[in-house]
Design a protein that fits this description.
It contains 14 helices and 13 strands. The chain is 44% helix and 15% strand. Strand 9, helix 9 and strand 10 form a beta-alpha-beta unit. The chain binds uridine-diphosphate-N-acetylglucosamine and uridine-5'-diphosphate.
C-alpha cells in the first residue's frame, strides 16, 4: 500500500510526525512525505527534531502570503504529484489551508483521503478563520475520518457522515508529546533573566481572527500586568513568525524587563518551558491539547473553542481577548495559591492514535465513486 502524507505548517508536522514514524515502520506500507512548505522555518524545526526528510518539498511560502495563494499553489502542485505517482491514500492532519487544498486535489484525482483530527467544530466559519471552513470541506471529502474524541465523532455523525468511515483514535498530539517527553533531558537555554520565585507565564498568540485590535489588547494586558506585578511574574512569549504578529508583539512588549520575547522555540524546548510554566496563555489549538495533557492551567485567548474537552476537564478557561478581562484573570491567578500540575491526563488521547490510524488505513476499503 502506498501512502502520501501531505502537510505544511508547524502544528501539522508535530501531529503528523508520529504517524509517519508508524507508516515507515510498517512492512506492508510504502510511505512518502510531501511538505507544501506553507511554513518554512517553523516547519523545518519540527522536521529536524523528528528526523523526517520529505520526499517532496513544494516550498510555496511567501512573506505575508494570502489564503488564495496557498490554496492555488497547493492545489496545482499536489495534483501534479498525484498525476505522477499512484497512491492508495493521501493523508492530511488538521485544518490549515494546506489540508483543505491537498484534500481537494486528491478528491479531483479520485485518490482516497484520510483526515486526522476530523470533526472539530465551532459551527462559526469566522472563528477560527479560515480553519472552521477548511476542516468542514476536508471532512466532506474524506474517505476515512479519524476523530480525536467522542465529541468530534458526534459532530460527524450529526452531519450524516457514514458511521463506517469514522474511527475515534485519540489525538496524535499525545503520541508526539510522549515521544518527545521520553527524551526530554534538561531544559533548553534561552536568554532570560527571571527573578527567583517569579511565576512563569508562557504565551503564544497567532490566530488570524485575533490580528489587529484583539492582539493589541492581549499584548497590552500582558504589558500592564508585567509592570503592575513586577518581580512576582515573568512572561515568556515565543513570537510566531507571521508579520502581523511580530509587528504588534515587538512594538508593545520589547522594552519590558519581565517579558521575554523569543524566536519560535524548537518543539522540545517549547515543551520544556511548558513543563516549567505556572500558567499558559494561548489562542493556539495544539497548545490547548498539550497543556491539558500535561495537566497545566490554561487561559484560552479566544471567544470560542473547538476543543471543549480542555474546558470541561477543568484545566482550561475561555477568557477571550478583552484587555480588562485578561488583566482581571491574570491578577486573580497570580495572587492565588500556586497551581501544582498533577499526572498527565488522557483527555485528548492515550498516545496510541498513530497505530490505530495506520491499522485502519490497511484494513479499510474506500469507495471512490
Ligand atoms: C497557519 C494556518 C493556521 C495554523 C498556523 C499554525 C492557514 C490559513 N493558517 O497560520 O491554521 O494555526 O499556521 O502556526 O492555514 N512565516 C514565516 N516563517 C514560517 C511561518 C510563517 O516567515 O515558518 C510568515 C510568512 O510571512 C507567512 C506568514 O507567516 O506568509 C503567514 O503564514 P501562514 O501559514 O499563511 O499563516 P499562519 O498565520 O502561520
Ligand atoms: N510550538 C513550538 N514552538 C513554539 C510554539 C509552539 O514548537 O514556540 C508547538 C506547540 O507545542 C504545538 C504547535 O507548535 O505543538 C502548535 O502550533 P501553532 O500554535 O502554531 O498552531 P495551532 O495548533 O494553533 O494550529
Amino acid at each position: 500500500m502506498k501512502v502520501l502524507s501531505v502537510f505544511g505548517t508547524r502544528p501539522e508536522a508535530v501531529k503528523m510526525a508520529p504517524v509517519i514514524k508508524c507508516l515507515q515502520a510498517h512492512p506492508e506500507i510504502e510511505s512518502h512525505v510531501c511538505v507544501t512548505g506553507q511554513h518554512r522555518e517553523m516547519l523545518d524545526q519540527v522536521l529536524e527534531i523528528f528526523d523526517i526528510v520529505p520526499d517532496y518539498d513544494l516550498d510555496i511560502m511567501k512573506p505575508n502570503q494570502s489564503l488564495s495563494h496557498i490554496t492555488g499553489a497547493v492545489l496545482v502542485e499536489v495534483e501534479a504529484l498525484l498525476l505522477k505517482e499512484k497512491y492508495d491514500w493521501l493523508l492530511v492532519q488538521g485544518d490549515t489551508t494546506t489540508v483543505m487544498a491537498a484534500s481537494l486535489a486528491a478528491f479531483y484525482q479520485k485518490v482516497a483521503v484520510g483526515h486526522i483530527e476530523a470533526g472539530l467544530r465551532t459551527y462559526n466559519n469566522y472563528q477560527p478563520f479560515p480553519e472552521e471552513a477548511n476542516r468542514r470541506v476536508t471532512d466532506t471529502i474524506a474517505n476515512l475520518l479519524f476523530a480525536p474524541t467522542e465529541q468530534a465523532q458526534t459532530h460527524l455523525l450529526e452531519e450524516k457522515i457514514g458511521e463506517e468511515k469514522i474511527l475515534v483514535t485519540g489525538n496524535t498530539v499525545v503520541d508526539a508529546l510522549q515521544y518527545i517527553l521520553a527524551n526530554l533531558a534538561g531544559g533548553e537555554q534561552i536568554e532570560m533573566e527571571m527573578k527567583e520565585g517569579a511565576r512563569l507565564v508562557l504565551v503564544t498568540a497567532h490566530r488570524r481572527e485575533n490580528f489587529g485590535e484583539p492582539l493589541v489588547q492581549i499584548c497590552q494586558a500582558i504589558r500592564e500586568i508585567a509592570l503592575e506585578m513586577g518581580e512576582k511574574v515573568h512572561f515568556l512569549y515565543p513570537v510566531h513568525l507571521n508579520p502581523n504578529v511580530q509587528e504588534v508583539a515587538y512594538r508593545e512588549l520589547a522594552d519590558i524587563e519581565n517579558v521575554t520575547l523569543a524566536e519560535p522555540l524548537a518543539y522540545k524546548a517549547f515543551l520544556y518551558w511548558m513543563s516549567q510554566a505556572d500558567l499558559i496563555l494561548t489562542d493556539s489549538g495544539g497548545v490547548q491539547e498539550e497543556a491539558t495533557t500535561m495537566a497545566k492551567r490554561l487561559f484560552i485567548l479566544r471567544e470560542t473553542t473547538e476543543r471543549p474537552e480542555a474546558v470541561s476537564s477543568g484545566y482550561a478557561q475561555l477568557i477571550g481577548t478583552d484587555k480588562e478581562r485578561i488583566k482581571k484573570e491574570l491578577r486573580e491567578f497570580l495572587v492565588g495559591d500556586m497551581w501544582v500540575s498533577g499526572e498527565m491526563t488522557d483527555v485528548f488521547g492515550d498516545g496510541k492514535a498513530s497505530e490505530r490510524i495506520v491499522e485502519a488505513l490497511l484494513s479499510y476499503r474506500p469507495v471512490l465513486g
